[in-house]
Amino acid sequence: MMFILFEEFIQDEEAWCRDIMDFIGVEPDPALNYNDIANEGNRAPKSARSIWCMKAVNKLRHWYNKYVPYISYGTDYAAMRLTMKLECRLTRPLTDHSKMSPETRRLLEDFYRKDKQAVEQLLNKDLSRLWFE
Fold first, then answer.
1. CA 96, CA 85: separation in Å to the nearest integer?
2. Average pLDDT along the chain
3. pLDDT band at 26, cuts 50/70/90?
4. Which residues make Cβ contacts (< 8 Å) with residue 133, sequence separation at least 6?
5. Quick check: pTM over 0.70?
6. SS (H, E, C) the chain
């Protein structure tokens, strides 16, 4: 098994991807772009009702993808645009990236302290510089 810490991975994604490919015996693809950013969180729900509506939209999207047979590109594109418009109306741009108060951070650090110590023992590695303390 190969264990990779996310914090180390994002510091040098290309080197880690090459290490992973080497570990599993796959030839690296020279055309692979290691700088792609995917699933970047840049929107937040406007309200509690928005969260509920977004969950409903996601359930409808799942139902549509599972049960509605492929009709045409235009139909699928229209459904995708509709869900994107709904999500835009239910969310707002995320401008505050702090996301967590210092009190919440301390509470979580205390809660996960034993888990952090167990991972340190398993990996035989000090995680203080990457995680909390």
1. 23
2. 82
3. very high
4. 109
5. no
6. CCCCCHHHHHHCHHHHHHHHHHHHCCCCCCCCCCCCCCCCCCEEECCHHHHHHHHHHHHHHHHHHHHCCCCCHHHHHHHHHHHHHHHHHHEEECCCCCCCCHHHHHHHHHHHHHHHHHHHHHHCCCCCCCCCC
